[in-house]
Design a protein that fits this description.
The structure holds two protein chains of two kinds. Chain A is an alpha+beta fold. Chain A has helices at residues 10-20, 33-37, and strands spanning 2-6, 26-28, 52-56, 62-67. Chain B is elongated and about 50 Å long. Classes of the chains: A alpha+beta, B alpha+beta. At the A-B interface, strand 1, helix 1, strand 2, helix 2 and strand 3 of A face strand 3 of B.
Chain lengths: 82, 59
């Protein structure tokens, strides 16, 4: 399954999901705790999450780590895993 | 040798991330409908965790 995650509020994410009709949950991480744990933020004051995508295996371990800002880490690399 | 040097050069431009094989840190967060989602509750499934900078920005 796909989970989106950002530092936005639940309300902001709800508006975002409704506008684009995303069929998957958008998680709200306002204190950046999860972002920091996944290195997508350097501290609790970081404004925006880095464009990181992780594939987490059924065993709870990271399978793939993709920086989608890196041209070598395009999101298309994900398609075979879905 | 050349491959090693090139690898080091490219690695420098890369931002630090968790690596394949690392345990995915546990979390429990609210989704856009206010439902609690816990990573350990999804064990047995493959999960794509997509960090995005800001709701309603392109890309």
């Amino acid at each position: 399954m796909i989970l989106g995650i950002s530092f936005d509020s639940v309300e902001e994410n709800r508006a975002f999901a409704e506008k684009f009709g995303y069929p998957f949950p958008l998680l709200s991480d306002p204190d950046r705790k999860v972002g920091i744990a996944y290195k997508a933020a350097e501290g609790p004051k970081e404004r925006y999450a880095k464009r990181f995508t992780y594939v987490i295996g059924p065993d709870g371990k990271i399978e793939q780590a993709i920086d989608t800002k890196d041209p070598a880490g395009q999101a298309s690399a994900l398609l075979p895993t879905l | 040798m050349l491959r090693h040097i090139l690898g080091e050069l490219f690695a420098k431009g890369r931002r630090p991330m968790l690596k394949p094989g690392d345990p995915a840190p546990e979390f429990e967060l609210q989704d856009h409908l206010g439902r609690l989602v816990r990573l350990s509750g999804l064990r047995g499934k493959r999960v794509v965790l997509w960090f995005y900078p800001k709701a309603d920005t392109p890309g």
